[in-house]
Amino acid sequence: MKTKLVCEKVMMLNSKDDCISAEIAANEDLLLLETPIQPEHVDGFVQVAIKQNWTVHIINNQQYKKIEFHDVPINIHHVQTFSDGTIMLVGSRCEYNEGKPDKNARFYDFNGRFLYALTFGDGIQSVQVDEQDRIWISYFDEGVFGNYGWDEPIGRHGLILFDRQGNILWHAGEYDISDCYALNVASSDKVCFYYYHDFKFVILDELFQPTFFEVKKDSFWEFAISDDTMAIFDGYDSYLCHRKRHTFKKGRRIQYVDEHREKISGRLAMRGETIYIYNNEGIYKTKLSGIK
Description:
The chain is mainly β. It has one helix and 27 strands. The strands form six sheets. Strands 1, 17, 18, 19, 20, 21, 22, 23 and 24 form a nine-stranded mixed beta sheet that branches. It has a four-stranded antiparallel beta sheet with strand order 2-27-26-25, with no helix packed on it. The radius of gyration is 19 Å and the shape is globular.
């Protein structure tokens, strides 16, 4: 059996560009990152330094803004916003360049005017800015162990908290992370992550004190979370997981439906307990608290 999760249609969005990522800001805005042409791989590697035009769509409760960025000199994979309207574009890959690494994070004002750039390192898996405007970045294995010329990678701790100037405020060095599979910054006092090789699920409080959980499910890459329930996405399907003490146990598969109980599917974005679905029919939003 499946659990039906009703989603509210937020708006229609017609675009001919390729959607590279769908991410959620700290204020629950949906952030869609698009480009006219996806950059090609060269000899099996993602291009880092490449001039490209990008578009960011910012959507929440039928409010909409479209911002265009021209001739951005790096390949972009992530977008986040800050409380003052600043927009951050981040590339997952970053070449060391013999001590002159790429600046793979670029900051813009709300009208798309370039402000400054920083280096956050190679192998970035996820980027989420919290309500205090701090930047949480998780890294996959190449960012932890090094590639693209990095012998001492910035991401060697697997999960790092930066400020807006690129200073490290905290890192997860004590967790021995080889690959941070999934990150959910619900708030500054509830930061959740799931990592290899221990396959531990961790919730950090505002003092970075951890609570550890087991998740009775194979690897997953994205999740929404409320107090006792998670919705996890494994790349194919979404499942409910229910907490009992310090274990989240896999439950039913989730079927997303619209207000008319018609099945919907599409690209997912999850953060906190919020879930967005984006497809050719529109943009839909729901929360885990909507599960009956």
